[in-house]
Write a structure and sequence with these properties.
Helices cover 16% and strands 22% of the residues. The chain is built from 3 helices and 12 strands, in the order ααβββββββββαβββ. The strands form 2 sheets. Strands 1, 2, 3, 4, 9, 10, 11 and 12 form an 8-stranded antiparallel sheet that branches.
Length: 246
C-alpha cells in the first residue's frame, strides 16, 4: 500500500518551493552587491588612515596672541634700515645725475632775480633754449672757467640790438619788456667790441645778466654755442623764504 504524504509536509514544500516564472517574464535582479573580484581591492571598504602628525598643517593661531608677529632681532632691524637707505640714496644720485642738477649762484650778475648763494635745480632733459630762459652755460675760451648763469636774450637766426643810453634791448626789431632788469640811474655799461645790430648764428644763444652793469656776458664774448648749455633753471629751493619756481 502506497503511503499518503502528510498534508503539512506538502504545504511546507509548497511554501519553500521557488515560484515558477511566468512565460516571457524577466528574472528578478539580485539586489545584493557582488563581492569584489579577486586581485582588485575594494577601495570603498578600506579604512582611511590619518596623516602622520609630522605632515599635518599647523593650526592657525587664535586668541589674544594671534596677530602678534615674531619679533626681529636688533641686528636684523638695523640691516633692513641700512638696505632701505642705500636704495634711496642710489635713486637720489641717479636722479640728480641724469635728470636734474643742483647749482649754487656765485656772484651778483643776476640780481635781483637771483641772489648770491641761491641754490637752484636745473635740467637739460628734452630742452631747447628759448628766449627769456635762465640757463647755466659754459663759455669756452673765456677767462672765467666756471659755468655762468645768464638769461637767454635771443637764439639762432634772431637779430639783437642794444640802446645803451635807454637800456632798451630789441630782438628782431621788437623792444623786450624786461621788468627783471636791475637798472640804475646811469647808462648801461658797454664793454663790447661787437657791432649791433647782431644776428645770432644758428645753434648759438645770446645771453645777458639781469644786473646789466655788473655782468660779463654776450656783449663781451659774443654768442655762445648752445651745446654748452648745462640746463635751464626750474626751481629755487634755498633760501627757504624765496623757495619756488624761477
Amino acid at each position: 500500500m502506497t503511503p499518503t504524504p502528510d498534508e503539512n509536509n506538502i504545504n511546507d514544500a509548497a511554501d519553500n518551493a521557488e515560484p515558477t516564472p511566468e512565460p516571457g517574464a524577466q528574472p528578478a535582479a539580485d539586489t545584493q552587491t557582488p563581492p569584489a573580484p579577486k586581485g582588485e581591492p575594494d577601495v570603498f571598504a578600506r579604512p582611511v588612515k590619518a596623516a602622520p602628525a609630522a605632515h599635518r598643517p599647523e593650526p592657525a593661531p587664535s586668541g589674544p596672541n594671534a596677530s602678534r608677529a615674531i619679533p626681529k632681532s636688533a641686528a636684523s632691524e638695523v640691516f633692513d634700515w641700512l638696505e632701505t637707505l642705500t636704495v634711496v640714496m642710489a635713486c637720489v644720485v641717479l636722479f640728480f645725475t641724469f635728470f636734474f642738477r643742483i647749482v649754487t649762484v656765485d656772484g651778483e650778475s643776476m640780481e635781483h632775480t637771483l641772489e648770491n648763494k641761491d641754490q637752484l635745480i636745473i635740467t637739460n632733459l628734452f630742452y631747447t633754449p628759448t628766449d627769456g630762459d635762465i640757463v647755466v652755460i659754459h663759455v669756452p675760451n673765456f677767462v672765467e672757467t666756471a659755468p655762468l648763469i645768464k638769461r637767454v636774450i635771443a637764439t639762432g637766426g634772431q637779430t639783437v640790438d642794444i640802446d645803451y643810453s635807454t637800456w632798451t634791448v630789441t630782438v628782431d626789431g621788437k623792444a623786450l619788456d624786461e621788468p627783471y632788469v636791475n637798472k640804475v640811474d646811469a647808462e648801461m655799461i658797454s664793454e663790447s667790441n661787437l657791432t649791433f645790430p647782431l644776428t645770432v648764428p644758428e645753434g648759438y644763444v645770446f645771453i645777458m645778466g639781469d644786473n646789466r652793469n655788473n655782468s660779463t656776458d654776450s656783449r663781451t664774448f659774443g654768442p655762445v654755442d648752445a651745446r654748452y648749455v648745462y640746463g635751464h633753471v626750474l626751481f629755487r629751493f634755498f633760501p627757504f623764504d624765496r623757495l619756488g619756481p624761477v
